[in-house]
Amino acid sequence: MTEMAKLSLPDGKSMELPVLTGSENEKAIDISNLRKKTGYITLDPGFANTGVCKSKISYIDGEHGILRYRGFPIEELAENPSFVEVAYLLINGELPNKMQLENFADRISLHSMIHEDMRHFFEGFSQNSHPMVILSAMISSLSAYYSEASGKATMEDLEINSARLIAKISTIAAFSYKKSVGQPFVYPRDELSYSANFLNMMFSVPAEPFELDPEIERSLELLLVLHADHEQNCSTSTVRVVGSSEANVYASVASGILALWGPLHGGANQQVVQMLQKIHMDGTGISKYIEKAKNQYSNFRLMGFGHRVYKNFDPRAKILKNECDRILSKLGINDPLLDIALELEEIALSDDYFIERKLYPTLDFYTGIVYRALGIPLNMFTVMFVLGRVPGWIAQWKEMHEDAKQKIARPRQLYTGQTKRKYVPIAERV
Fold this sequence. Notes:
Number of helices: 17
Number of domains: 3
């Protein structure tokens, strides 16, 4: 028997609302018929208390610091990170066997080239264009080449376009960077792994040989895995909203890229490094900025600390903290910004002010440090986030279109403007 919640309204009426239970015993009150039966809507700025869909893809328990992809703890998936394997898991629902993984990886390699005409698109952007701008525009333009990528696509079309998108976004991202620094494009190489291929396209130049460091490749694989999906965040819900109109997967993902770009979302990792640069250039030490962060009247914000969902330590941050320590030691990195970051982390984890408010270091804090250690330039930080998140976006888009009850997104509002008034001709206006 369905559990019911009773809603009492100011006019004396009441309504019973079904209470739904998720697989992890989460509770949700089904208000889908609220307006139809009562004329009322709910008001929830930022959708912090609103479930917009049912999903089987990722699970978060913010109070206990839990993240799982398709039921698998992120800690286990991070032990021997394989981004392509995790991408397959998210999109298809199960871990692949050896043959399935090989076929999926081969399909991605097969589609890593972009149409040669698209190389000319980059000429239309100024050299100062942010790579995220270029990336979004180029991904959207893929719709012109692959028209079968709509929500009405066959399963085979969906599989092909999933591989195409994962493959080509890596190439486009690397080309976007090359455009920003005025270097020639480096074409993908089918014999390389996904991460190795991207690093080669990013950092190799015709003038000298490029030797891939396996330690850097491993760190990049881990970073991509940790960013692969994260429930209904701003960019993911944007992909779903745009996709709900039957927009194709490329247009939907392009919209997600733009949502991710904001400094309160994917751009936070870039903000962390910019904060560290500011502290370093000031030269007065960290204590000054710790005190400013505690001062409610200060406009300074300690970037990379505190998460909207996690009220405990972000499980991804725990993993990346260990990786941060490992890769800095392996590479023998000597960077004053990294030294500041590590000192800042130590203070924040021991200071009662931050502990009481649960302002733990987030994934973004360590991401910025690791990217810098790997040699990833600052303007590419958010692009790297995109590379990791694409499988999750595809999975969410696919799941939405497989749901027979899915409707086009159409939120309501509480109108607070002028009531009805009469139009006055311009000659009569005071």
